[in-house]
Amino acid sequence: MEEAEITEEVVQQSGPNGNAKKKIFVAGATGSTGKRIVEQLLAKGFQVKADVTEGSERLVDAVGDDSEAVICATGFRPGWDLFTPWKVDNFGTVNLVEACRKLGVNRFILISSILVNGAAMGQILNPAYIFLNVFGLTLIAKLQAEQHIRKSGINYTIIRPGGLRNEPPSGNIVMEPEDTLYEGTISRDQVAEVAVEALVHPEASYKVVEIVARADAPKHSYEDLFGSIKQR
Ligand SMILES: NC(=O)c1ccc[n+]([C@@H]2O[C@H](COP(=O)([O-])OP(=O)(O)OC[C@H]3O[C@@H](n4cnc5c(N)ncnc54)[C@H](OP(=O)(O)O)[C@@H]3O)[C@@H](O)[C@H]2O)c1
16 alpha carbon to ligand 1 midpoint, in Å? Predict the structure, then answer.
């Protein structure tokens, strides 16, 4: 979404159920979480539109006026440019939100991270908070983008997962309100599921949810999980 060209656009359609007409734009669809989101959307009968590269000036065209919602699972790829996290995790997301505003796309799901507001939580000395901010202010960049979404008027769900694992789920999802969790991990499969379920549960609207998985946690429906989070 920054300074490069859109090189390919993939539109896939799948599924026999009522989601078949809903087209979802996935940013970061090539990523480890993004590709799981695409798989789960298709399995649930959504159409998926995936901008597989970049180009902020062409985001409006990429999202298009036929997308009903956007899921953003982008994240900077480590490199030598210390500004990359700020460009991707703040400006890239902001550009996507602005594209949605122009197009009238009124549903936005963002994969963010626990500890984005670590300083306000008294977690400024948390090693994860320090580590992720030393490399390009990553968590602060994500928090800036979150604040932009929350002021945008768009119906958002901001999902803040703990440390991401590629392994299949090994516990049930624990969902807490913003600025609550400061440790824990979760399977990318579960993060993708939460993102897709947020689309179909009105209880997820205008909410920030923090998620990890714990082996001893009871299993809850998504209706109950999202419903348990009170909007501030
Ligand atoms: N790793 C963790 O433990 C952890 C914990 C909490 C939250 N998170 C967050 O969760 C999200 C997903 O993480 P992940 O590890 O699944 O992601 P990932 O595998 O690193 O994938 C990142 C995605 O972002 C895309 N991207 C990078 N720079 C871009 C740019 N300038 N314009 C457009 N797209 C760009 C990548 O596209 P290309 O394939 O083209 O590079 C890729 O599709 C990220 O926001 C991450 O910060 C991660």
Answer: 30
Decide if 1 is inside a domain: no
Number of domains in the chain: 1
The whole domain housing 14 covers 9-227
CATH of the domain at 28: 3.40.50.720
Tokens of 141: 């960049």
Pair 9, 51: CB distance under 8 Å: yes
Tens digits of per-residue pLDDT, 168-199? 999 999 999 999 999 999 999 999 999 999 99
Strands (E) located in 52-169: 69-72, 107-111, 155-161, 163-165
pTM above 0.85, yes or no: yes
Which residue owns the Cα nearest ligand 1 atom 18?
31
